[in-house]
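Bumping with the actual sequence this time:
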Amino acid sequence: MGLSKIIYWTAIGLVVYTYAIYPCLLWCWCVLARKRKKSPELGKEKLPGITLLVAAYNEADCLAAKIQNALQIDYPEELLEIWIVTDGSTDNSPLIVREFPRVQLFHQPERLGKIQAIQRVIGSVQTELVVFSDANALLNKGSLRAIVMAFTDPLVGAVAGEKRVVDAQDAVTGESMYWKYESMVKKWEGGVYSVTGSAGEIFAIRKSLYQAVPANTLSDDLAISWQIIAQGYRMEYAADAYSSELGLVNIRQSFTRRIRVAAGSVQAALRIFSGKGYAWKPIFWWEVISHRILRTLVVPYLILLIGCLNLFLICNGVTYKILFAIQLYTYLATWFYWIKSSSQKQPVWISLPTFFILVHFAMIRGALSLWLGKQSVLWETYPRSMGKVFDVGKNE
């Protein structure tokens, strides 16, 4: 019984460290450390050229809105190139892109996945900076200038923007709250040393630092940014550069998508220990282990272990009974939300614990799919309304 208690509380401690203590340590570090000097605003004559690169597969429903949003970004027209890669698209995505003379289309009938679409064209980029974005994510008007400001530090090799999930009547509330939490952690990581990863919806790199990654890479943003950091550069966080998108219309779609994202995170984490690790500084290793390794390879299994041990220890005092009741409620809320599978917005006290549980179950499923070789590099698209998000991207 004594050993069970030790394992139980150690597991809880690791989960609490990952989601609460680690962010608190980052915050304290940022408060105590000297603030970096704010970069001066650049005049037009000093702005670098930018290529906005979007890899899109069958995104006809939102591609026109994405391009209109890109054309409205506050950046000199002669310094901004907009490239859309539509490899394998079987809808009218290429035709939509051709309706915009300023936009360059790259299309081929064969579909090999997002990372290969990126690597097929990135060698032709002539601008100093490359900004990656997704077709269903709209950028605020000042996003590119905010990214450029972050690059005024010569030690910054990549910049992560902020991902915002807009709550609508059919949005998953837990997803929105999750990304708000993630944004805070990334901001504090950047204040300590370097952001550990970026959202594929908006991140940027110095073109000269790009290195090819394996063709079977699932998480292109992690692989690309980690290689740049291994070269001795940092990834800065730019809160004023953000993307906006609507949450998926129901929890089952969200879970399916999270499996794909989770598999990419697991793959990136395992590559660190496969003899192809990165030459990072110790402080970045601490950030990666705390934010990425524990969340991906440890915590999902600890959550299951905690539940099993709690059932075994439930008769050992009121504390165990309370903790068991909390876990039981969380799983029942998840079951309720999953069975209902409604597009109707759910209250936070249901959607938040549900999203927390499903994120970790997706990690386990993603790891299993990766291990069995069943996780494809090909993305599946899901329908999302762009109306409300386009208003955000246009006006802010």
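The tokens above came from a reply further down the thread. The first helix runs from residue 2 to 32.
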